[in-house]
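YM 10:42: R3H domain-containing protein sequence, as discussed on the call
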Amino acid sequence: RPPTPSTRWCETMDLLDDILAGVEETYKTTAKPKQSAQAKRMAEFQRQMRERAKRQQQQFRKKIQAMLAKFKDSPDNEIKFPNEPEEQRRYTIHEVAAEFGYTTRSEESTEGSGIKVIVVYKEEPEDERPLEFNQLTPYQKAELQRKIGVARRKARTKKKKDDEYDAAELATSLTKPKMKEYVPKDKRSVREIHRQLLAKRAAEAKAKEASESSSSSSQKYQKGETKKI
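YM 10:58: structure's back
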């Protein structure tokens, strides 16, 4: 007995369901391994610690800004901060002081005590004791290197301008003789002047050599004539 149309339709739908199920199984993404409860607690604890450290750093920065703003209106020339054990906080003091245009130094609070403090100056006093580079703070090292770079760029710019000025002076010599009017400027370049000067000297040397040779030949001729007589 041949299958009826309804039976064929059911078989076709069953086949399509099997194909779709196979496709879904093939492209099904593998589930991520579940994180353990202990790992979750540790990750959350680390996140909270980072947020706490960030808030504390922001509060410390605001505190230093408030103290330096108050120091700005005072007649004192210096203010001292305890040398913080954390390098980030020490750097913050130097950085905020630089924003106010002040100078900072790491010094001892009293002579020979060994206790370090960070001193902020409105106007830097003269220090007769030069510090070694390795004794400077990270901020002072960066600031010193920046100033050295600026000084080198200024020196290169000045040398370039001086060279251009010297070349212009050689190329355009303006003289003022006894007469009232000025002599027109020399429009030749430095290279042209140098080349023409060398050519002139070579021509003068050649003319001098020819003159000496001619004079020598004349003297020899006169001596010969004298012998004949």
